[in-house]
Amino acid sequence: MDPRTAVELADIDAVGQAALVAAGELSATELLEAAIIRLDAGRALNAVITDLFEHGRDAAAALDASGELRSGQAGPLGGVPFLLKDLGASLAGAPEAMGCRALRTHVAADTAWIVQRYSDAGLVIFGKTNTPEWGNHCTTEPSLFGATANPWGPGITPGGSSGGSAAAVASGIVPAASGGDGTGSIRVPAACCGLVGLKPRRARTSFAPGAGHGLEGLVNEHVLTRTVRDSAALLDAVTGTGVGDPYSAPPPVEPFLRIIAKTPAPQRIMVATSSPFPGPATDPAVSSAVERTAAVLAELGHHVESGAPTIDADAVADAIAVLHTVSNVELFATARAHLGREPREDEFEPSSWVMIQEGFQTTGVAYAEAIAAIHAQTRRFATQMLDHDVLLVPTLLTPPPHYGLLDQPRGTTRAFFDVEFATTGWTALANVTGWAAISLPLGTTSDGLPIGVQLMAPGEEVLLALAAQLETAVGWADRRPPGWVGVG
């Protein structure tokens, strides 16, 4: 394929690319080869750490031969090139290091349920994206693979832990890539890279076959995209439960892609610009972006008022720290089983080693108390939101931060999260409560860096509908970072 054509296709979102295939204008193989050209052009970003080109070519050829793409049977995503985050999106037989030096030679034994759903939807998987060790950090600079660059500028993080996926989408390599979110790991990269990042409500998708949930329900999986309709279409593709799942979310009343085509009823929206955690004040540019978004929503007919639900910040931070220490011990056991020996300290990031050591000292009582604290703070939060439908807040409290801030050891796991929450603010509350939350690229700094604004609600339907309204009213489709493929 002509490289110029490959770059031109970068401007088309996933639903649009699938429509080209369905209309017979391009094949899945041609879309894939165009994406590989863009990936090679964007190698300097270090967004993709594992090439799965032959897997992708086999899948694209099978789709082209089946006739499903042009018959319409493949759905709105058939034939679209897609990348998997190298954490939580396992593909049997593919490398799966999870950003960890101790797992550098690890290969996945099973295909995750959600990955199978992506394949069933006609997405063509052809690579895996960079992630910090075990998703512990809201930045993507693992020592195993090196830092992923933010297409918006040198020196600033693309966020994490889905930073490789975010950089790949923001640069135009692919229209969408998978992510996971335990304290903001989809929404933080979306804010840093100027993307749409939806964390679904708890149990919207399945963790089968490997688990029933992640981090006692804090983790949810979805994608990074440039358009709202791509996020909706991909959520339609993976909504549901696997056999034997411990719990599930109520099914949507209709497909999410159909929901975003409708004007939502007026919503009661609470707006807050300050953080629920102690720390520095929100950056004025971020506060202004939230306030401008509130004004737009009011003009669209929604009921907007200032306010903020309160939580016991210490209880939340303590509980999240405890859950992470135990999770790191579980992953340490995975490394031990893979290596067939006791892993060494130098095979882990320093901050992860702190979590591992604390995890071995965490008692069952402390773990149970952490879970109870999460539930208690969820009830407190939800009770204060009974008179409102949606919470509008910053995604990050600052513009995209520089490298070296969000991955450093702080002596204790709690101190580590105190630093994280001073930057991320509200993101962890969506994970704690199980609410859905979406980050939208609704602001920019004076020097042109993206600012994310976040909407939170019990379910995704209203968030996606509001996001579609804001996308039409404000728009971000024409924004391209300096690191866009084909530039220069």
TrEMBL record:
Gene3D superfamilies: Amidase signature (AS) domain (3.90.1300.10). Residues 30-458 form the Amidase domain. Its EC number is 3.5.1.4. It is an enzyme of class 3 (hydrolase). One of its GO terms (molecular function) is amidase activity. InterPro entries: Amidase (IPR000120), Amidase_dom (IPR023631), AS_sf (IPR036928). It catalyses: a monocarboxylic acid amide + H2O = a monocarboxylate + NH4(+). Belongs to the amidase family. This is amidase. It comes from Mycolicibacterium obuense.
